[in-house]
Amino acid sequence: MTTTNNNEKQLIRVGHSPDSDDAFMFHALTNGKVDTGRYIFTHKLVDIETLNRQAFHGELELTAVSAHAYAYLNDVYALCSCGASMGDKYGPIVIAKQKFTLPELKTQCIAIPGLLTTAFLTLKLCLGNEIRYEVVPFDHIFDAVKRGEYNGVPIDAGLIIHEGQITYKKEGFELIVDLGVWWNEETGLPLPLGANAIRKDLNFPALTDVTRLLKASIEYGLRHRNEALDYALKYGRGLARNDADTFVGMYVNDWTLDFGTIGRKAVEELLKRAYEIGAVPKRVVPEFI
Q: pLDDT digits over 15-34, tens only?
């Protein structure tokens, strides 16, 4: 726990992914566009699976996490009511060089971006627990599917997160299933992919102050879209501006400003179903700040 007196700045270490939607969301906090008062924010940019793993140690006061990973972290972290990445009838996709039916997909080896990603959890909810998979860094999955292997392991399909969700056609791949569409057809709910989690041992009022500043950063980006998009493009991995704008719009929107009643219900439903199929070790009711 980082402590402070009235005359000292309180350090808030932040972790988020080096991709365009997170960069857009954190632009104002990163670049001094909002007054952070007595808090100093430092930023650590690493992929979401690494952030999920690091959150087990509670080293960051504020961190992006997968909704899946939160099932293991709720003793240490609460979810901020803002900062969500929700797939509203869209989400992670499974792609391949050729068409597969879902029954056929169950027999293929799928490159996945991490065991704790919500994408992998949703894939298990869709296909069942008995999935053939290989963990591949998210930004290497396209290449692994093109080559048909990764480190000598045959790869038949890939589970795609981040910008690849809108660029896969240009890469020549076939869409097998959009898991956000599948989830909505199953539940009528948006798919809660990621969130920002805040460490519960922070002194009061830091819990609410930091959440408020995160929301202010998101609001700033939405009000100053072109400016925030200019910054986000640095993390777009070569995305054209219009594609980056599309991707940011998918995951930084009204859901990001507040989960709301439906978004909170979606998180509860995801974690309930995860427990029911044995994908997580305990039933977790999410706590929001």
A: 999 999 999 999 999 999 99
Contact 285, 133 (CB under 8 A): no
The amino acid at residue 211 is T
The tally of domains found in the chain comes to 2
The pair phi, psi for residue 113, each rounded to 5°, is -85, 0
Residues 234, 190, 258, 137: is their CA dihedral positive or negative?
Answer: negative
Alpha-carbon gap, residue 226 to 214, rounded angstroms: 19
Q: Which residues are catalytic?
A: 162
Nearest CA among 257, 53, 92, 268 for reference residue 178: 92
pLDDT tens for each residue of 205-220: 999 999 999 999 999 9
Among candidate residues 125, 159, 187, the one where a domain is terminated? 187
Q: Is the pTM of this model over 0.90?
A: yes
Query: pLDDT tens across 71-92, in order?
Result: 999 999 999 999 999 999 999 9
Whether 167 and 210 map to the same domain: the answer is: no
Q: Are residues 118 and 136 in the same domain?
A: yes
Q: How confident is the model at residue 7 (pLDDT cuts 50, 70, 90)?
A: low
Expressed as residue numbers, the domain containing 112 is 93-187
Those residues with Cβ within 8 angstroms of residue 184's Cβ, 6 or more apart along the chain or in another chain: 88, 89, 190, 191
